[in-house]
Write a structure and sequence with these properties.
The chain has 449 residues and is α+β, with helices and mostly antiparallel strands. The protein has one domain: Outer membrane efflux proteins (OEP). It is 65% helix and 17% strand. It is built from 10 helices and 8 strands. A 4-stranded antiparallel sheet has the order 3-4-7-8, with no helix packed on it. A two-stranded antiparallel ribbon has the order 1-6. Strand 7 and strand 8 form a beta hairpin. Helix 1 packs antiparallel against helix 9, helix 2 packs across helix 4 and helix 8 runs antiparallel to helix 9.
Length: 449
């Protein structure tokens, strides 16, 4: 099912711009997401986490290659020999300078599949980190979209609140004038002033909410929000039923795939821990050259030696290894339960966000109808006011009803877009590319690689 909110966004632009005039410089949703990609520290940390997991996987592969080392040493030693029969008389003495150079090659032949399972574990952990990064990407986009739409909704509501405050201020003045002429009571004036003060509070509260939304978006993108934002034209694919949504989520949601690979990595760790009970076989080859020269000798003594060996080590009593295996088994069980719990959580989220989206669609349709109705009534009220059939206060009351309808429309549109993005994330399809395509803007290439 394709959800197109273009007609709604166009309607909202017409409704708001027709009264409030043209907007200033605009900040697009794609610009905000790209800034978050390039500047958000949490996103950078997630990328480094993925890179670290991949590097650790490569490190486990390296244990299958031979290791080559070289060493060099030099020293000087002295010797003194006495014979007890000659009453501790010195029989011989001397000092020697020695130099040694060695080259050694070591190769692991067999380690009871510890290294193999450890490599598999780190490989699955690297895949889990990859999907963890995708999950963080989706969370970042969801937060950017939510803060962006909050800014749009609050700025549109603020415009309406300001206009409503002005209208109510005029009503207060009109009531005071009517009171002076005996056409109104003090209670009428007090009621008008109460509504006016309430409108002032609504305007101040909207200003506060707008500042909070801008501050949150700034924390995500590391850029100050100084421009107007516009409602994004999203056209995203979502399933037509809740069952289809759940099926897509179970197959493609990054958190589920991450949990699967994390559980497999934990099982590999158990196999690696069991391998510690088996034999270990290593091969080594070394070449050593030694130079020794006593002080009283004319020439140096050159010695060269070569050695090749194969060693097999069989553990007999390894209590720490037993507890290491038990520890790995407990972690494997925890990873399994965590993965299953994540599936249940995502299934619940499918139901929650699907219901919220359906409600947002209905709310948006009702708000659009209310705005259309209020626009028609506004024209009628204006004509009756100009012909003297309605007073200024009656006309302004009708205008306030129109402004309230716009406020409700802004709230409904924000909620619908937020829920649409949540559904796309549940399907595992939320990314800069999908949002860019949905907005019909091709700006994904601006992201720093």
């Amino acid at each position: 099912m394709k959800i197109n909110v273009k007609y709604i966004s166009m309607l909202s632009v017409i409704l708001f711009s027709s009264v409030y005039g043209e907007a200033n410089e605009e900040l697009t949703l794609i610009d905000s997401i790209i800034s978050a990609y390039n500047n958000n520290d949490g996103w950078k940390a997630a990328q480094e986490g993925k890179n670290a997991a991949e590097a650790q996987h490569e490190q486990t592969k390296a244990v299958f290659f031979p290791s080559l080392s070289a060493s060099f040493g030099a020293g000087r030693s002295g010797q003194r020999t006495t014979l007890p029969a000659l009453e501790d008389r010195v029989y011989s003495k001397g000092k020697t300078t020695r130099t040694e150079m060695a080259l050694r090659l070591n190769q692991n032949l067999f380690k009871s599949f510890q290294d193999v399972n450890n490599m598999k574990s780190k490989g699955n952990a690297a895949k889990a980190a990859e999907y963890s990064l995708k999950s963080e990407e989706q969370k970042l986009i969801i937060n950017v979209v939510a803060s962006y739409t909050s800014i749009w909704a609050e700025q549109e509501k603020l415009k309406a609140y300001k206009q409503r405050e002005e209208n109510l201020a005029k009503i207060v003045e009109a009531q005071k004038a009517s009171l002076a002429e005996g056409m109104a009571t003090p209670a009428d004036v007090a009621d008008a002033e109460s509504k006016w003060q309430s409108a002032i509070y609504d305007r101040i509260n909207a200003e506060s909410n707008l500042s909070k939304a801008k501050a949150y978006l700034t924390s995500l993108t590391h850029k100050e929000v100084t421009a107007e934002v516009k409602l994004p034209n999203l056209n995203l694919n979502i399933p037509s039923t809740l069952e289809e949504l759940k099926k897509a989520a179970m197959e493609s949601k990054p958190e589920i795939i991450q949990g699967k690979f994390a559980a497999e990595a934990a099982e590999n760790d158990v196999a690696a821990a069991k391998g510690a009970f088996g034999p270990v076989c290593n091969a080594s080859v070394s070449a050593v050259k030694s130079l020794n020269k006593p002080d009283d000798a004319i020439e140096r003594k050159d010695t060269r030696s070569y050695d090749a060996s194969i060693s097999v080590e069989i553990p007999i009593v390894t209590v720490p290894t037993y507890y290491g295996m038990k520890y790995a088994s407990n972690l494997a069980q925890r990873a399994k339960f965590t993965a299953e719990d994540k599936k249940l959580e995502i299934a619940r989220n499918c139901e929650i966000y699907w219901s919220a989206y359906i409600a947002a669609v209905a709310s948006t349709a009702a708000a659009v109808a209310a705005v259309r109705s209020s626009e028609i009534n506004s024209e009628s009220n204006f004509d009756q006011f100009m012909s003297g059939l309605k007073s200024l206060m009656e006309y302004l009351d009708g205008e306030n009803a129109r402004l309230n309808a716009r406020i409700n429309l802004a709230t409904a549109l924000k909620e619908k877009i937020d829920m649409l993005v949540q559904l796309c994330a549940l399907m595992g399809q939320l990314s800069l590319e999908s949002i860019s395509q949905g907005c019909r803007e091709q700006e994904a290439s601006k992201v720093k690689k």
